[in-house]
Amino acid sequence: MTDPFAGIVGHSQALAQLRSQLETDRLAHAYLFVGEAGLGKSIAARSLATALLPEAPLTRHPDYWEDDRIKPLSINEIRLLPDKPPEFHELSLQAFLNLKPAIGSRRVALVANVGRLRDQDQGVLLKTLEEPHPHRVIVLTSPSLNPFVVLPTVVSRCQRVFFHPVPAPEIEKLLVGHGVDAKRAGLLADLSSGRPGWAMRRAHDAGVIELHHQWTRAGGAAKATRRTRLCSPSPAGRSSCAGAC
Q1: Could you say which residues of the chain have pLDDT below 50?
Q2: C-alpha atoms less than 13 angstroms from C-alpha of 221 in its C-beta half-sphere
Q3: Residue 28 and residue 21: Cα distance in Å, rounded?
Q4: Residue 105: what pLDDT?
Q5: 12-162: which CATH topology?
Q6: What ranges do the domains of the chain cover?
Q7: What is the pTM of this model?
Q8: 69/42 Cα distance (integer angstroms)
Q9: Do 19 and 26 contact (CB within 8 A), yes or no?
Q10: Which backbone phi and psi does 135 adopt, to 5 degrees?
Q11: What does R_g of the chain's alpha carbons equal in angstroms?
Q12: 160: how many CB neighbours lie within 10 A of its CB?
């Protein structure tokens, strides 16, 4: 079987866990991918969904539902019988999961950054997690397990998969593989703080490198000014640098 996570760098432990579950067909009904923004949680979730739904691309697969918008997710996008038709989706999440798979063997849903949901809306989502339908997989993502971000009861119903910062050399290799100049790739990898998603989004943004140079120059100038002040002679003719010069 082709590795569904082949294009993802880092996260060896998390991906090994998912690969093992795919190979043995022993999947959890709900996952919570945990890690700061830009680490690749949503990409990993889509890769998992692609492996489970090989019949068609996810963008037009009738058994796939995703919400990764920045704006808050309203209750009408979640519950089975919304007060109003869902604004963004053809079906609410619960209505989608309530239907049998159309062409595949499963239905898969991704809710990125579940902290966008208010506590009461997460409570509605909790009912779905507590009473899972067979052959359904739900993937939630969150930057942390802080109870002010995601309810502990939601966390307890999910299998947690942790994503950590990726070493800079791996991010650099990823960027070079996507045609980024080696020198620029190295600098972006160093600036990324281990976030390949951030590095890929900035790969062709000329401004980010210039902004880095401006900060570097400003920081150097500030240090030089401080050193000059420290080492300026005192009224008695003595230097006040106390060894700083």
Answers
A1: 220-222, 224, 242-245
A2: 6
A3: 8
A4: 94
A5: Rossmann fold (3.40.50)
A6: 12-162, 168-227
A7: 0.82
A8: 12
A9: no
A10: 60, 35
A11: 24
A12: 15
